[in-house]
Each structure stands twice: as structure tokens, then as C-alpha cells.
Design brief:
The protein is 4% helix and 72% strand. The protein is mainly beta and 191 residues long.
Length: 191
Amino acid sequence: VKQLVNQVLSRGNSPEVDNPYLLRYAYHLDKKHALTLGFGLELVGIDEKEGGNVNRSLLDLRVGYMRYFEVAKNLDLGIGADLVLQRHLTRSQLIQTGGFSDSTVINTNAINNLLGGGLRANITYNITPVISVGTEANMYYLTGLDKTELTVSTFDSFSGELRSFSENTDEANVTRMQMQMPVVLFFILRL
């Protein structure tokens, strides 16, 4: 709750918010029931001057059902359940040049695929029948596969000839309980 208050009172200087579902859609079956969709996509590319780069893509998708309760005039509480899919991919390349010695290229691919579900609650204040602000909290149980692929190639600096090559793949089953507290204010426009 402290982060939410800081976000509201910070006048635009708030820290980065970690809520992957910034594009949300709700299809209201009636005033109290809705089918919901949340989508997030983040693409990050970092090129370092010293021979390295990192590319990251994060895809987050959720589909769910919400039940709304009127707590007070213009104030609604929503409680629901979601199915969640997360696919996070990070690729990096580091090039180390040794001057007159060998050069090394290190490539890393980290893939994290998770599937699960859980509960979500939100609270919404209706400013007008069309415009609202709200926040949410969720708790998801996710399970899936975490896979890391590492390749190391060593080249002769003069001829460019490959001197050595090694490859390693590591896989692990992942189970995670993820909880996000209300640190985001959503501006909601009903069409």
C-alpha cells in the first residue's frame, strides 16, 4: 500500500512498476460478472560498448472471470480467478577480445515458460459511468520449465579460426507462487 501512496503523491517521479498486465479488457456479461483478458509485452535491447548485447522479451497473458460487488456508491470490489501464461526469453552475447591472444564469444539463451492460475482482487472508483480508476492485487501459482543454453566459442585473433567450442544445456522444473500487491493505478475507460 505504501508503494501505491508513493505513486499517487510522487508527481510523476515514481519508480518503475512491475505489473505485466498493462493492457486489460473486460467483457461484462451483466453488471456483476465479466470475462477478462490481460496482456503484456516487453521488449528490451541493450548494446554495450565493450562487445556485449542483451535482448529480452517478456510475454504475459491471462484470461479470467470476475465477480463485482458494490461496496459503496461509485466504489466496486472485484474478485475473480485467472489462467496465466508467461513466456520470458533472454538472449545475450558477450565478445571478449584478447588483443594478441584468442577471442571468446559467449552466447546465452534463457527461456522460462510458465503456466498456472490463481486469484485476483481489484477495487474501482467510478468517477463517471464511463471513467474509473482502480487498482488490483493477485496471487498466482505457476509451474513450468526453465531452460538455459550456453555456448562458448574461442577463435584465433589473427586467422579467425575456431579453436574450441563448448555447449551446455540446463533444464529445471520450476514452481512459483507469485503475489503482486496493489502498486498500480489503472485509468479505465468504458466504451
